[in-house]
Design brief:
Layout: E1 5-9, H1 12-21, E2 26-30, E3 36-37, E4 48-49, E5 54-55, E6 58-59, H2 69-82, E7 88-90, H3 96-109, E8 115-116, H4 124-132, H5 139-167, H6 176-193, E9 199-206, E10 211-214, H7 244-251, E11 256-268, H8 276-287, H9 291-303, H10 324-336, H11 376-391, E12 397-408, E13 415-425, E14 460-461, E15 465-472, H12 481-490, H13 499-508, E16 512-514, E17 520-522, H14 524-533, H15 542-556, H16 562-591
Parallel strand pairs: 1-2, 1-7, 7-8
Antiparallel strand pairs: 3-6, 4-5, 9-10, 9-15, 10-13, 11-12, 11-14, 12-13, 16-17
Length: about 600
């Protein structure tokens, strides 16, 4: 009798599900996460072969830890010795971390050609398909993960001693992504602390039944160096007029001419299915959970804790779109219940412009299952995931948009705009689904309905009156975990697989404090470290992290060499460290 096919996965719970679903056909064993890592306290160097730019990885070995790579490898080898000729498949998670784990397992077991299974849900259908279409390990993805791990080790182990030597306090450390996150909070804190209110002006024309507002021209931006960190922390980018004389001059227009009058339609899609960041945000808003708890609950739902199959698709994803086949099944289900459905499936653009979109959005494994999960927390998160996935395919609302652009009739220098937005077809907005908590979107701001006339280009209009309004600039609000997460997504900082750890570090590392009102505030230690690192170190620039993420994506796509990127980063860091150390010694001698 042939041996069962051995499938190596990460989670013991996942292995148990495989054994239950395919008893006698598949045997699943778990790695319990990564089986090896860079040495925590290397006797020499930092655990990286600088010449080859390779990590000097060792098996984790600690009998008291759940994760014990030596024990896992011994177990796998023992099984293969007892079952010679066993076919081996790698079934770790379908992301760069999972690819890396599979590669290490294959190396330590001496597997010459392990088959690589890729599945985004733990169901019989998905696993069968993954088994039948198994390919090879994606070595570009492995290289990308290796580059990320080495770069993070280099920055942490090379820059931190320099920082500690200058700051001379406990808890001082530098980290690539963590420094960028702290920089955002620090920049925001300093803007609040140093804010001085300034008066600015807007100009409005009453056109006898409708209003037009002056469009303040944007000032051109010239820059020779990198974008300053403070410019990554700007939420309000609308230009402002601080010149009262200019505002009064603009308001003194006696005759306006119609430059254009354009009508169009605009769709307002329902909120998208959840993906990692939006799931973290909605769980924070509705359930009051931090990122770490949300991801742990999602992991249990993915593995099917308490049932014979997984309840949701893979939960580490940055795509807001679900698989076309699943979308069509949902659309059919909605039609059968008399709910409005568009002619084609709804799709959304990624907010993260560098999103990998390797996985579909998070959805139920079987969307017709209304309730799933082994406890109340699992059931609560499943409900949010299911409602967002199903109702995302309702028909969009359609608005009629009319936009009139006026210019001053004498010089044409200034422009004034009036916009009307009228609901034509309510679509999903008039369904009961729109009232559920899961479908309440924080970003929606409905404008009052106004009526604008039909006007031809060149028509001359005389304003009924004009008004100059005074406003005071406001200090920006402090970040919350939710708004910080949204900013990180916008700036392409962090990835689905690392977001929970990143946000957890923000809350518990000690450099950022969470106030009673849930607002984030930087500590004095964080600010002291920031002042040493920025702008002297390249990695302390917020833009650096996003650019590096793009480079790692290029490695994963086979467009960039991983070791070369690591070498460039290390060489630049050595240069930055030498310059900072030299300047610090000079200052110390002057003080002495």
């Amino acid at each position: 009798m042939p041996h069962p096919v051995l499938i190596i996965v990460e989670s013991p719970n996942k292995a148990k599900k495989f054994d239950e679903m395919f008893a006698g056909r598949f045997k699943a064993l778990a790695t319990v996460g990564h089986i090896c890592d860079l040495p925590a306290n290397p006797t020499e160097g930092i655990g990286i072969d600088r010449e080859a730019m390779k990590g000097l990885y060792i098996l984790t070995e600690d009998s008291k830890r759940t994760v014990d790579g030596k024990r896992v490898v011994d177990t796998l080898k023992k099984y293969l010795r007892a079952n010679p000729g066993t076919e081996v498949y790698i079934g770790t998670d379908d992301d760069r971390e999972g690819e890396s784990i599979g590669a290490f397992v294959a190396g330590y077991l001496g597997l010459k050609n392990p088959r690589r299974m890729l599945f985004n849900a733990i169901t019989k259908e998905k696993i069968e398909h993954a088994f039948e279409t198994a390919g090879e390990i994606n070595w570009n993805a492995v290289s990308s993960r290796e580059a990320r791990r080495l770069i993070d080790r280099i920055i942490g182990y090379v820059a931190s001693p320099v920082l500690r030597n200058i700051i001379k306090q406990k808890g001082v450390a530098a980290g690539r992504v963590q420094t960028a996150v702290e920089a955002l909070v620090i920049e925001r804190e300093r803007k609040i602390r140093n804010h001085k209110s300034h008066i600015y002006f807007t100009v409005h024309f009453d056109m006898d039944g409708w209003n037009a507002e002056w469009q303040i021209p944007s000032a051109p931006v010239t820059r020779t160096g990198p974008k300053p960190n403070s410019e990554f922390d700007i939420d309000d980018t609308d230009p402002k007029c601080f010149d009262a004389g200019l505002a009064n001059q603009v308001a003194n227009q006696q005759i306006l001419a119609v430059d254009s009058c354009i009508e169009s339609t605009e769709k307002r899609l329902p909120p998208s299915p959840l993906y990692t960041i939006s799931m973290i945000q909605i769980a924070d808003r509705i359930l009051g959970w931090d990122a770490e708890k949300t991801m742990k609950i999602a992991q249990k739902l993915f593995e099917g804790d308490g049932s014979g199959h997984g309840h949701i698709t893979y939960h580490r994803t940055d795509s807001p779109n679900i698989d076309p086949t699943a979308a069509e099944e949902i659309r059919t289900w909605l039609r059968s219940r008399g709910l409005p459905v568009p002619n084609e499936a709804n799709r959304w653009d990624c907010k993260n412009k560098q999103a990998q979109e390797g996985h579909e959005a998070i959805r139920p494994s079987y969307f017709e299952v209304e309730e799933a999960g082994a406890d109340n927390d699992q059931r609560a998160l499943y409900k949010l995931i299911r409602e967002r996935a199903i109702y995302s395919q309702l028909a969009p609302a359609i608005y009629g948009i009319k936009r009139i652009v006026l210019t001053d009739a004498t010089t044409g220098t200034h422009k004034f705009v009036a916009t009307a937005r009228t609901l034509v077809e309510p679509g999903w907005m008039k369904t009961a689904a729109a009232q559920t908590l899961a479908m309440q979107d924080d970003e929606v701001n409905d404008t009052p309905t106004v009526t604008l006339p039909d006007l031809k280009r060149g028509t001359i209009l005389v304003p009924k009156k004009s008004e100059v309004r005074r406003h005071d600039t406001k200090a920006p609000p402090r970040y919350t975990m939710r708004t910080l997460t949204a900013k990180l997504e916008k700036l392409s900082i962090g990835r689905p697989a690392t977001m929970a750890t990143l946000l957890n570090n923000v809350q518990h590392k000690g450099t950022i404090t969470v106030r009673k009102d849930k607002k984030l505030e930087a500590t004095r230690l964080a600010e002291s470290c920031y002042d040493v690192l920025y702008p002297r170190f390249a990695f302390a620039h917020i833009g650096y992290t996003a650019e590096l993420e793009l480079a790692l994506d290029q490695i994963a796509n086979g467009l960039l060499d991983g070791p070369n990127l690591v070498r460039v980063v290390w060489d630049r860091l050595d240069q930055d460290c030498a310059e900072v150390t030299s300047k610090h010694l000079e200052q110390s001698h002057k003080v002495a």
